[in-house]
Amino acid sequence: MTGPIPSVALVGNPNAGKSSLFNALTGARQKIANYPGVTVERKAGHASFADGRPIALIDLPGTYSLTPASLDEAVTRDVVLGKQAGEKRPDALIVVVDAANLDNHLCFALELLALGLPTVIALNMLDLAERDGLTLDPQRLARELGVPVVPTVAVRKRGLAELLEAVDEAIRTHQPRDVVAAPRSDASLHQRARALARAATLSETPVRRWTQRVDSVVLHPIGGFALLLALMFVMFQSVYAAAEAPADVLESGIGVLQGWVIDTLPDTFLRGLIVEGVLAGVGAVIVFLPQILILFLFILLLEASGYMARAAFLMDGLMGKVGLSGRGFIPLLSSFACAVPGIMATRAIPDEKDRLTTILIAPLMTCSARMPVYALVIGAFIPARNVGGTPIGLQGLVLFGLFLSGIVGALLVAYVLRRSVTRGNAAGFMMEMPRYQWPRARDIAIALWQRAWIFLRRAGTIIAMTTVVLWLLLSFPKAPVGQSQVEYSVAGRIASGLEVIVKPIGFNHDIALALIPAMAAREVAVSAMATANAIDASGDEEAMAETLGERLQGKWSLATALAFLAWFVFAPQCISTIAITRRETNGWKWPLFMVGYLFLLAYAAAGITYWTAVAFGLG
Ligand SMILES: Nc1nc2c(ncn2[C@@H]2O[C@H](COP(=O)(O)OP(=O)(O)OP(=O)(O)O)[C@@H](O)[C@H]2O)c(=O)[nH]1
Ligand SMILES: [Mg+2]
């Protein structure tokens, strides 16, 4: 018998494995084209039944229901309903469902079955379901649904022949009246899908059941967010609660070292450089190592336990609203360590404009280089007490607020960019959830050690170098007796020039002096102020005994301190980030754009913070 070639469409939820099945079935025999008038890819190809008769296959974009939310989803609906121009209604459907996610995927399957076309269910990803400890009964599911159910593993090409055979059979024996009515309401559809999934489940290991129960809390659209915020909150509280003792030890260690150098070396150029430049400057940054490590300890634990992928899943919706794809979550997350690897990780984002947007907002994630700056200013100006009668520490709360400002700022910027400069729509994203597991102490220890090493290496190279250069510029020319060395020096004079520009946002000479060298790396803002203060205090026993924080307390108003914090949420003070952006975007256009908009935001944020604080009498 030679009739027209039957055409069969592959439909199902996103990431069910439709394209994988399509590729496995058609091999190289496929054509890619666009649907006329819309830019949605149309993939068509040929396969053949066991006896050699051809069959035409169409791969459709994944959707969650026949009520489309986007253009590609509308195409799927139009094709299966036979309304797509230039496409005849398929003779049969292969509904692809993810075996490990049956209850979700069966919702759409039920809707599709109600269309009354010859239909076969491909119970795909059976390998993953088995790995997760789930044993299914395809026959039982077939009986319940009234259509054939064929187990498949698309990526291993398993079940393909059986699938085609079932399709052939379904087309030949199809009776237009054996239609299963779909439940009317969404709620009853879900209920029916859940009941079906339960019926088709032979056994489920306790681990899988347990995982699903934990996930129902962790991935809950409201409860999950509350948990994420609570975890972040605890993280920032701990930074202050746990870092104090080790930071004190480091600080007094550096003090002892300074005293020893002063006692041993004669008062020369070299001694000044070591005491004021290297020890005061670089030492002021190194004392924040415990804070950074505690933050990383939390991030590493969340990652190793399997939680982080769930947080990405939660964020996906929010990121989609501002036009970013969930694929951007991991690059943005790694930008909390440092924007440089974060920006490199954006290579995993296929859409160019989506990727560009992610690169442009990556510097807004609070990288660990900001920690010394935040910790210094918070430690000096935010009282170490609890909020009201609660156990919530004020310092941790402010730190949390700074991180949150960066994130909210990034989302707002992305929202604006995606509607202007990098216009485009977000692509959906799904990722496989890793298993929950106890983090291994050894792995965590190694990762922490690596973080510490990176930080110390920065302190020993770029931060030390910049600080030494600054020390030189601060030490010459020598001020006449009675004049401030810092203000008389080359660096001091440059700072006085810059001060004119930053005075309106509440910045003083200390800050103006720190801003330019801090372009090399943000931590240099701390080492620069420490070095300037050390030079200022040199010879004055009492002043030398004071910590940098104590000295700033005496000189800055609270409004200035807050403005300085707000500045650092946005300011693009990092040469490496600018360089990597140039490399990843192949030119100077985007790094310059990035630096420009970030400085503007920083200036505005610092200004608004300063004047608001002054209005509240904190000037
Ligand atoms: N382990 C396993 N992975 C699979 C299987 N089928 C598909 N995958 C993987 O699942 C992911 C999604 O597969 P796709 O074929 O792109 O899914 P799709 O249904 O076409 O997705 P959309 O086009 O987005 O709707 C890919 O990474 C596949 O390699 C399977 O049977 N077993
Ligand atoms: Mg696909």
Summarize the structure.
This protein is of the alpha/beta class and 619 residues long.
What does this structure look like?
The protein has a 7-stranded mixed β-sheet, sandwiched between helices. A two-stranded antiparallel sheet has the order 7-9. It has 27 helices and 9 strands. The protein starts with 6 loop residues before the first strand and ends with a helix. 61% of the residues lie in helices and 8% in strands. The chain has 619 residues and is an alpha/beta fold. The structure holds guanosine-5'-triphosphate and magnesium ion. Magnesium ion is lined by residues 18-19, 59. The chain crosses the membrane at residues 217-236, 278-302, 322-344, 356-382, 394-417, 455-474, 556-580, 592-613.
Judging from the principal axes of the Cα atoms, what is the shape?
A: elongated
Number of helices: 27
End-to-end distance, in Å? 91 Å
Structural class: alpha/beta
- How much is the average pLDDT? 90
**What percentage of the residues does DSSP assign to strands (E)?**
5-15%
Q: Specify the oligomeric state.
A: single chain
Identify the bound ligands.
guanosine-5'-triphosphate, magnesium ion
Largest sheet: 7 strands, mixed
Strand order of the largest sheet: 2-3-4-1-5-6-8
Q: Uncertain spans, ≥5 residues at pLDDT below 50?
A: none
Radius of gyration: 31 Å
According to DSSP, the number of beta strands is 9
Residues in helix, % = 55-70%
Keywords: Membrane, Transmembrane, Transmembrane helix
Domain FeoB-type G: 5-173
Protein name: Ferrous iron transport protein B
InterPro entries: Fe2_transport_prot_B_C, FeoB_GTPase, G_FEOB_dom, Gate_dom, GTP-bd, P-loop_NTPase
